[in-house]
Amino acid sequence: MCGIAGIVAPAAHDDAHRLRSVERMLTSIAHRGPDESLSTSSGPAHFGTVRLALVDKPTSRQPMADDAGRYLLSFNGEVYNFAELRSQLSGLGHSFRTAGDTEVVLHSLMEWGTDAFARFRGQFAIAFWDDERRRLLLGRDRLGIVPLFWTRTPADELVFASEVKAFADAGLRTPMSLPDIVDAGVLWGLHPGRTAFHGVSSVPAGSFVASHEGRETVTRYWSFAFADQRDDRPVDDQAKELLGLLTAAVERRVPQYGDPAVLLSGGLDSSAVLAALRAIRPEQQIDSFSIQFTQDGLNEAPFQAMVSEHFGTRHDAIVCDDEAVARALELITRHAELPLMRTAPGSSIALAERIKHSGSRAVLSGEGADELFCGYDVFKVASIRDQWSADPDSPAFARLLEKALAHQEQLGRGAGRAFYERGLEQHDDPVFSHLHRWSAAFRITQYLAEPLREQVSLEGTLEGVRERLPESFHGWSTVERAQYLEATYFLGTSLLATQCDRPFMAQSVECRYPFLDEDVIDFALTLPESSKLHELNEKLVLKEAVRDQLPPAVTERVKQPYTAPEGGVFRSPTGLALLEQYLSPDAVADTEVFDPRRVAWLIDKTQRSRTSFHDDLALVWILSTQMLVQTYGFADANADLRRGTA
């Protein structure tokens, strides 16, 4: 992938100054593209790209203009079906001077306009300028794998970039936004199009923003929606089709240069990706990379070793303890640009650094399977609570929950019956599947400074979700509604940023996601719920698809969520130093976001005894928010927050 940045002014004047601003923005995101940095102008549009060249290294330089100079493109990502599109465009009279996907993207937008976005198969963020129409298009892939942010300045310029940190180099102030800080902590994600920064928008996943004559319109070209007509074939037939689609998706994502590599957790999803890769590359060297933890309950090293040996990979792993995770927290928070809820992104960026030094520039990941095929516990809980709400006096459902979530105890994340009973009587609430979880998470707001606590409410936070739900959502089952919420909030705005794009691109390593392939997604959305979650058996159809390829110990494993050390991190030497630097009473009082007395109580509890899951969650959220606020400031709703380009 790459990094892109640009400024579109109301008219072409002071162009050299704006182009220098774009070049400074590129410097701040140079980690996304260490191979080349270029910028250019077309009328009032000034584009720049830092390039991580994984396709057509010699010729696909960016920003790229058409021969007539009407159009200009900055492109970040990969379009895997570019050869097919190129053939179609050639038949329509287009000629090409390069062999890569960038020029195909350019000509696709020239030929088909905004209809081109739905034709692209891949992971991408695009800025496209039409100088004759004076129109800018900003577009992203279906799930929002590749980031793209934009804002407007008081001088009426539109500024865009792959990462928010670049805006400071365009002279913009982007302070943190209270409602979005709260959403990030309570919902574990943001509303589509929102960011944690006041005045900064994200191009929503599966959408494009058209900017013309100072106005922007957002159009969705794809939606996460279950098919009206479901696949009623036997699971075995569905599994065969899924295996074929997954194998094709893996093949599309094998890098053009170097040996292929896989992130290997030892769980079903990454092992399935590796199985597909080995099937299409039976003789080629394959590298696998893993994270291991010193805590037995979190460590999956035996399964990683088993799968690596089974497929004959050249395996490498890092070992993370409390101290290692603590050392990574500042760096990952700076790159994530979002308040964190868990420490897992810290170990991800540590692994990305190891991969970078190995020489690999692209790795395949199993992310996305849990949301598509009901891998997370939240889906089991939703199913059981759905039945429980119809018979709340029955003791059977509490026992069923205890059985379904027994593995959580060894992770220190067990919760009592009262937690799961919360909101049971609110079955008609559209967000019923997440009510207990979000209600419990809202307790983190008790640590906000008093004036800010008065500005937020649980009901207000939940209503923000409800009012954005699509009409079709109301016709889905409780589990399918949970899938939508996980895909839209957790996957789309949090996980893909904090554990995927940002930690790996911070080390100039591109992650690719076969489970987020368009054909795999479309297929998953046609499956009935029973093919994914069968009683308490998660990802049934995926297990059947790869049962003959994987060791039985892997296919029979209960899903173990990727969890890094949490409470102990803040009792390590670096963890204690971070608490002193960012959460001392003076530091907390200085930012005016949190209540110094309450934060001190939480820290004291952390250091005196074992903390709960929600205590750990609160401390990570507070610490990462403080880190970001010290860098970006905090929004005053009545202030003029932007200064325009410098």
Main attributes of the structure:
6-stranded antiparallel beta sheet; alpha+beta
How would the blueprint of this fold be written?
Layout: E1 2-8, H1 15-28, E2 36-42, E3 45-51, E4 64-65, E5 71-79, H2 82-91, H3 101-112, H4 116-119, E6 122-130, E7 135-140, E8 149-152, E9 158-161, H5 178-186, E10 201-202, E11 207-212, E12 215-220, H6 235-253, E13 261-263, H7 268-280, E14 287-293, H8 301-311, E15 314-320, H9 322-336, H10 344-358, E16 362-364, H11 369-373, H12 377-388, H13 396-404, H14 406-410, H15 417-421, H16 432-441, H17 450-453, H18 458-466, H19 478-505, E17 510-512, H20 518-524, H21 529-532, H22 540-546, H23 552-555, H24 573-583, H25 585-591, H26 596-608, H27 613-632
Parallel strand pairs: 13-14, 14-15, 16-17
Antiparallel strand pairs: 1-3, 1-9, 2-3, 4-5, 5-6, 6-7, 7-11, 8-9, 8-10, 11-12
Helix pairs in contact: 2-3, 6-7, 6-20, 6-22, 9-10, 9-19, 9-24, 10-19, 12-13, 12-19, 24-25, 24-27, 25-26, 26-27
Our measurement of the CA-to-CA distance between the termini, rounded to an integer number of angstroms, reads 28 Å
What is the molecular shape? globular
Number of strands: 17
- Biggest beta sheet summary: 6 strands, antiparallel
Strand order of the largest sheet: 2-3-1-9-8-10
What's the number of helices? Answer: 27
What percentage of amino acids are in beta strands? Answer: 5-15%
Structure classification: alpha+beta
Task: Report mean pLDDT, rounded to a whole number.
Answer: 92
Our Rg estimate from Cα atoms comes to 24 Å
User: Fraction of residues in helices?
Assistant: 40-55%
The stretches of 5 or more residues where confidence is low (pLDDT under 50) are 638-646
